[in-house]
Design brief:
Elements: E1 9-14, H1 18-29, E2 34-37, H2 53-61, H3 65-71, E3 75-76, E4 78-83, E5 88-92, E6 104-105, H4 109-121, E7 126-129, E8 132-140, E9 143-151, E10 154-165, H5 172-176, E11 180-182, E12 188-196, E13 210-215, E14 218-226, E15 229-237, H6 238-243, H7 246-255, H8 258-263, E16 268-276, E17 281-283, E18 287-288, E19 291-293, E20 299-300, H9 308-327, H10 333-359, H11 368-376, H12 381-389, H13 398-405, H14 427-432
Parallel strand pairs: 1-2, 1-10, 2-7, 4-13, 10-19
Antiparallel strand pairs: 3-6, 4-5, 8-9, 9-10, 11-17, 12-15, 12-16, 13-14, 14-15, 17-20, 18-19
Helix pairs in contact: 1-4, 1-9, 2-9, 9-10
Bound molecules: flavin-adenine dinucleotide.
């Protein structure tokens, strides 16, 4: 098979999560061909269930947001932050200011990811294979030119002008090319359950909100993912899991945040305890001869402010836009790769700095920055909410600028930040002036 341009496809995407689907939708809409290879059969479980308002904006721009409404996913209007020391604040998404989306959805990822992957598969030019596992990269003269994968018991090969690593934590290409560096700044692990029979009238806060509860050595999340199902997770030092039974730790940590316990009273376990760890890493090279790395495959640190899906979608889309510039010969691949890397790093590092503010234990129980952020920073609420909602590529948000001024919170090597909101684009400056 050939696309008439000397390879089987214009791009091969490894992985059918949000980043891979976003890339595929964008590239095929521009008339190019994509082979997307996904290891699992969807729907499949995935953690990562709370979305940001900017995530909803990107989904709308990709043409899929209405499908989330049809699925009946819960609407999120706020983020409640509490501490085991009695601290309690709520960020209302609506306090972002005029011209911005003031709400988003919470999602059950199995169905959300399937909905996105199906939307990618519907595009003319897209070939999506599930239960197709990529095992090996094909390289020629220092260029990635294709992959070898197993499908229906057979090993096959396919070639493309670009190979995209959207394989999340697996990092098939990032690891295969030796580009991934493990980080151990936070050393956390997550254990979580889903509870059914949820009755939001028991919620001491606001229906649909994400709750984050911070205590002396970790934090918990509570995210309703269906009208009557809630995901509750505990983030804790990974070292604790080596010493104690995960079930016991989960129960102990839950007790520290009575507002979350109160919300799930009367529920029953719908999905048993599972966990994740070793998820801190980054790559300093995000694109190169014949490849782009998008979403979690390129970086992950911690999920506290629910930006993983957002970053996966926008880096997937941007990588497709940059691929087009290479395919048309409009720009030199090396220039495109450098610009894409700067874009990726600007967004992920801004989010990383927000995360570090939570783990900054210069104040007891809750990070000094986070306390300031919600209480005493002297910065108008709209800037705080904009930051939480996804304003990661700004250079005019004073709260983001404070985070960026904090020494010691660098994540990547030296690079020049690339500003410009991928969601609001040209409107950004006009909106930020409001
Ligand atoms: C504990 C925890 C909580 C989180 N909470 C949130 C949250 O509330 N909100 C949020 O936005 N994000 C959250 N995240 C992050 C979010 O889940 C990820 O950022 C997001 O899923 C990244 O999307 P992706 O497409 O890059 O990768 P993934 O969604 O991981 O998709 C990668 C895909 O690649 C496939 N794959 C892997 N190897 C191969 C192979 N060899 N061949 C073919 N396919 C392969 C996998 O099967 C998978 O489907 C959380 C993460 C963790 C760990």
């Amino acid at each position: 098979m050939s696309n008439g341009r000397g390879t089987d496809y214009d791009a091969i995407v490894i992985g059918g999560g949000p980043s891979g689907s976003s890339y595929t939708i964008t590239l095929t809409k521009a008339g190019y061909t994509v082979l997307l290879l996904e290891r699992d059969k969807f729907p499949r479980f995935h953690i990562g269930e709370s979305l940001l308002p900017y995530t909803a904006d990107v989904l709308e721009q990709l043409g899929v947001l209405h499908k989330l409404g049809e699925e009946g996913f819960p609407i999120k209007l706020g983020l409640e932050l509490s501490g085991s020391d009695g601290f309690l604040r709520r960020a209302a998404l609506g306090d972002i200011g005029d011209g911005y989306r003031k709400w988003t959805y919470q999602v059950e990822r199995a169905d959300f990811d399937k909905l996105l992957l199906d939307s990618a598969a519907e595009q003319p030019g897209a070939t999506v294979l599930e239960e197709a596992k990529v095992g090996r990269l094909i390289q020629e003269d220092g260029r990635v030119t294709g992959v070898e994968y197993t499908y229906q018991g057979e090993t096959r090969g396919a070639s493309a002008r670009y190979v995209i690593d959207a394989s999340g934590r697996a990092g098939v290409l990032a690891r295969g090319l030796g580009l991934r560096t493990s980080d151990a700044n936070l050393k956390m692990a997550a254990v979580y359950k889903h509870f059914g029979n949820l009755d939001e009238s028991r919620n001491p806060g606001y229906e649909g909100d994400t709750q984050i509860g911070v205590h002396e050595n970790g934090w918990l999340w509570a995210i309703p993912i269906r009208k009557d199902v809630i995901s509750v997770g505990a983030m804790m030092p990974a070292s604790l899991l080596r010493e104690f039974r995960p079930e016991d730790l989960y129960a102990q940590h839950l007790k520290r945040l009575p507002r979350i316990e109160e919300r799930i009273e009367g529920t029953n376990v719908y999905r048993e305890l599972s966990g994740e760890q070793n998820f801190e890493y980054h790559a300093n090279t995000l694109a190169g001869p014949g490849f782009f790395i998008i979403g979690d495959a390129g970086c992950f640190s911690d999920p506290v402010f629910s930006a993983g899906v957002y970053l996966a979608l926008v880096t997937g889309r941007r990588a497709a836009e940059e691929t087009i510039k290479c395919l048309t010969g409009e720009e030199r691949e090396a220039d495109v790769a450098e610009r894409y890397g700067a874009f990726f790093k600007t967004g992920y590092e801004t989010y990383y700095r927000l995360i570090r503010a939570v783990y900054d234990n210069r104040a007891p129980v809750m990070g000094r920055f986070i306390q300031q952020m919600f209480r005493e920073s002297g910065i108008h609420e709209k800037w705080r909410v904009r930051t939480l909602n996804g304003d990661f590529w700004t250079d005019t948000n004073p709260f983001v600028n404070r985070l960026r001024a904090e020494p010691g919170w660098d994540l990547f090597g030296k690079y020049d930040r690339l500003y410009g909101c991928p969601v609001h684009g040209e409107r950004q400056r006009e909106l930020q002036a409001r």
